[in-house]
Specification:
It is built from two helices and six strands; from the N terminus they run E-E-E-E-E-E-H-H. With 154 residues, it is an alpha+beta fold. The longest helix is centred in the middle third of the chain and has 27 residues.
């Protein structure tokens, strides 16, 4: 079965929120991110400048990632998961497998990040971004604006 994915993105001050809807593909036309209908549910991903990522994996399971810059090329990642498993043994088993998955994902992502070229992805590096890249565009525009504000003399 082919899955049809459409998504929306919004930015309010220093917070970018991203929503996705998945449904079986049956010939529908994809919606542009700015045409997604408003939703009252939590976004799947939310990025808060300068360095916090909140991922809703469900109503009762959340991941928070904090990115702490060490220098111009190194960042320490802090990951914390929250869930509402009530039964102690189920919670312990869930935590064990969740921690294993986090280690695997972090190591997989690390390989991608350290081999990325150009090392820093800015707005104007010649990429051909498409409407589905709206979260990337929002992030880079806000980041660029913050950098300009920081480097301008008072």
């Amino acid at each position: 079965m082919t899955i049809f994915i459409s998504g929306g993105v919004s930015r309010v001050h220093d917070m970018i929120s991203v929503w996705f809807d998945n449904e079986p593909e049956h010939g529908q036309i994809p919606l542009m991110p700015n045409k997604m209908p408003p939703t009252d549910r939590n976004p799947q991903i939310q990025f808060r400048f300068p360095n916090v990522w909140h991922n809703w994996l469900g109503d009762t399971f959340h991941l928070f990632l904090g990115f702490a810059p060490i220098d111009g090329e190194h960042t320490k990642l802090y990951l914390r998961s929250y869930h509402s498993m009530k039964i102690p043994i189920v919670r312990q088993v869930f935590n064990f497998f969740s921690n294993l998955a986090n280690i695997f994902i972090e190591r997989q992502d690390r390989r991608v990040v350290i081999t990325q070229r150009p090392f820093r992805s800015d707005m104007h590096i010649g990429e051909k971004l498409i409407p589905g890249d709206a979260p990337v565009i929002e992030y880079r525009q806000r980041r660029e604006k913050l950098i300009r504000q920081e480097t301008q003399p008072e």
